[in-house]
Design brief:
hydrolase, 14% strand, two-stranded antiparallel sheet, single chain, 329 residues, Rossmann fold, alpha/beta, globular
Length: 329
Amino acid sequence: MSFSRHIVKRMTQMLVPKIRSEYPCVDGIRTHVMKCGDFPADQGKKLLYLIIPGNPGVVGYYDKFMRELYRAHGGRIPVWGMAHAGHVILPDDIIKENSGASKGTYGFKDQIAHKIAFVKNHVPRDTQLVLIGHSVGCYMVLEILKHCPEVDVLKGVQLLPMIERMKETPNGSRLAPSTYFRWLAVFVAFLLSFLPDVAKRWLLKLYFLGRKLDEGAVEASLNLFDPNVTNNSIFMGWQELSLVREPDLQCIGQHLDKLIFYYGVTDGWAPVSFYQRMKNTFPQGDIHLCDRGIQHAFCLEQSAEMAGMVAEWIEQATAAEGGRPLHTG
């Protein structure tokens, strides 16, 4: 690495801005949106990362992943992430502003409509999107591609995709019986919600004992002590079991040039057989099988490594489009 490039990299590491939280009203629902960076003033074509989480859809889990993506491109691409409806505890001032609104229980189809509404109404029109889905968020990325043809999407990145046959997966078969205990889980969350935050953090650190969690993981997990969040997460998961069936091969084939798939070797939500089937169906597709030991919940401990890979893919994509390659120091 040249001395000048080293200096640029060091400056970028120091200048990554604090991620800011906003709470826009999306399809009538106050939604937690995290934003890292702004569009550079001297940039002609605006490029934006948008992260769609898995379940639970607490966007705070992706704090470090967002920072690393922003840093990898030298601050040239802002990174946004949006939570699922009802999966985050809202700040007191936002709750007071919406005191008359029902918290509601949002199903899987509601969450898909929620993401489509955000892309259509809250992303600047003159922006080219890099959609990043994680787990069941990958299913939502496909739905956005299908229902938002007017949106300029450079790439749809499918990280550890959970887009098919959820009931047949090892984790899906284990999850199915637990959905019958939804209200018991909600009741336990209700009881735990009365604990002070210091006690909740202690319980989480005990649960994650021996693991080096990425920034924001413990704080994000505090949301799971809220009974409304627990209810929405379990209800959404229960509906996923019945709705995530056959992969949408028509949509995938139509948008294959925009899609990048990254499957895990030991992923309980997407066995290697799913990768092999996808690769055989679309041999010309950009479909990868992990060789780095990255786990399904990469946002807990492996954000930096995943962000580095994604940044490289997007640099290659922008260069292939004939645009200015983006610096990934």
